[in-house]
Design goal:
globular, two-stranded parallel ribbon, 21 helices, Growth Hormone, Chain: A, 503 residues
Length: 503
């Protein structure tokens, strides 16, 4: 089985008669591919946010300013903007397998480079090694973040796509959870920093080994659904042009991209926002952990729900509105002292409502832009989100002011005199703005579901293709079907009929 471009395009090249006879079949090794991508995404996220929960200790140890420590996280967002376009081309043109292997090696190399100042004596500028390692990991991030939507489309049947996308996408916030919990636990004093850096190499190395040894092909021998058979049917540049001209996609990309930027800024700045009001690093880590745990729980439940109902638009609109309400609550309560229980509850709800819509939004991006390749559809949303994240994070840090009243800060650096009130109110305002725009202006049909309407069911992985009925089922062309069966109407409501798979 060939991987890469030839493998990705082989289904679309089949003749219509052959496509009608082909049984849509799924393979058990799709879960192995999903495991590798999930582990890689989790490792990459831990490397991204490993410094943020202990920013004050890092700044004190390396004699850095708070802004320099923030750049160890911000570099992910900056690097991903230009490299994101290349990553889109790699995924849709070179193939999912080689993109994942390249990502794994970049991620592993970056994790090792960060530790070199402690392996080699007399390093004059360890910050350069830290920044270099973070930059390599940032290059890897664009490849792995874009992968879940494409992996779900190429390997999973239609009734498992949202769930598979959810698992791959939520592995990234799981890595953020690990960093929020593990970094403060490992770094009790400055001398513990080398131990933290070394431990984070382990999952990166494991992901690199599994990707290199266990991934053999970019696509399965037989497509799992009709949509997979037409995956990446548009050329790279042609696909980007179609995306830019697609009004619904542009609105989704701008609003959801803004949500990505807000969540990236929240994760990177949480410790700094809380410590100035007397909250410990351990409590900030707990809030970050609750943020992720409830986010993963919400994504799991919502992913299963939309897989069964196909209510993509309704789910993302409601999720955005609830997230905005909680973001306003955090902006207000985070400026008060002694509100541990309230802050913990707010961070839990923030994750529950906010993170849960991420995999749904990625699936919706593919649905409203079909037949553009999944890598381009999901990737462009993320690139825009990173660009918005850079602007939001720079703006939030720039709007901090020096406090004049006595401080009860627990920070260990100069950030103890900063006031984040205006910055947090701006974050809440942006969240509300993006939610309102999405609710009022986003409407789309589900193009991929329309294309799959009336197709034959998938075959379980333990079944033999020869066992399928040799007489293809009678199919009705999509244009002849009643309007309600082609997915959602103009308001985005899902249709009554969708093709079902059994796996």
């Amino acid at each position: 089985m060939m991987a890469g471009p030839a493998g990705d395009g082989q289904w679309a090249a089949a003749t219509p008669a052959l496509a009608a006879l082909r049984v849509h079949r799924v393979y058990a090794r799709r879960w192995v591919f999903l495991l590798v991508v999930s582990l890689l995404s989790c490792s990459n996220a831990t490397l991204w946010l490993s410094f943020a929960p202990v920013a004050d200790t890092i700044a004190q140890h390396f004699l850095l300013s708070t802004d320099q420590v923030n750049w160890l996280s911000l570099v992910y967002l900056v690097v991903s903007i230009p490299s994101g376009m290349v990553a889109i081309w790699v995924l849709d043109s070179v193939g999912l397998r080689w993109a994942t292997i390249l990502c794994a090696w970049l991620n592993f190399a970056g994790s090792v480079l960060r530790t070199l100042p402690y392996m080699i004596l007399e390093i004059q500028d360890p910050f350069a090694f830290l920044m270099g390692g973070q930059s390599l990991c940032a290059l890897a991030q664009t490849l792995v973040i874009f992968s879940p939507a494409k992996l779900a489309a190429l390997w999973f049947p239609e009734h498992q796509r949202a769930t598979a996308n959810m698992i791959g996408t939520m592995a990234n916030p799981l890595g953020i959870l690990v960093a929020n919990v593990l970094s403060p636990a490992l770094v009790q004093k400055e001398e513990d920093i080398p131990i933290m850096l070394s431990i984070y190499i382990i999952p990166a190395g494991l992901a690199c080994l599994l990707a290199t040894a266990c991934l053999w092909e970019s696509v399965p021998p037989t497509p799992p659904s009709a949509g997979a058979a037409h995956s990446t049917s548009e050329k790279f540049l042609d696909g980007l042009k179609l995306l830019v001209r697609n009004k619904a996609y542009v609105i989704l990309a701008v609003c959801f991209g803004g949500g990505i930027g807000i969540f990236s800024s929240f994760s990177a700045l949480l410790e700094q926002v809380l410590c100035v009001n007397g909250y410990s690093n351990e409590f900030a880590g707990l809030c970050g952990a609750l943020f992720i745990v409830f986010g993963i729980l919400g994504a799991l439940l919502l992913g299963l729900y939309v897989d069964r109902t196909k209510h993509f638009t309704e789910a993302i609109k409601i999720g955005f509105c609830l997230t905005s309400v909680v973001c306003v609550a955090f902006a207000l309560v985070s400026q008060l002292r002694g509100q541990n229980i309230a802050l913990a509850a707010i961070c839990s709800l923030f994750g529950l409502f906010g993170f849960s819509v991420a995999p749904v939004a990625m699936e919706l991006a593919v649905e409203c832009s079909f037949p553009v390749g999944e890598g381009a559809a999901a990737g462009l949303v993320f690139v825009l989100g990173q660009a918005e994240g850079v602007l939001i994070m720079v703006l939030l840090t720039a709007l901090t002011v020096r406090r004049t009243e006595p401080s009860s800060s627990t920070c260990r650096s100069a950030q103890d005199t900063l006031d984040w009130k205006v910055s947090m109110l701006l974050m809440a305002g942006l969240s509300t703005l993006f939610s309102c725009c999405l609710v009022l202006f986003f409407h789309t049909p589900y193009r991929r579901l329309q294309a799959e309407a009336g197709t034959s069911p998938s075959v379980q992985e333990h079944q033999c293709p020869a066992a399928a009925d040799l007489t293809p089922p009678q199919q009705t062309p999509p244009e002849a079907l009643p309007k309600h069966s082609l997915g959602p109407d103009a308001a985005g409501n899902p249709g009554a009929a969708h093709s079902q798979s059994f796996s």
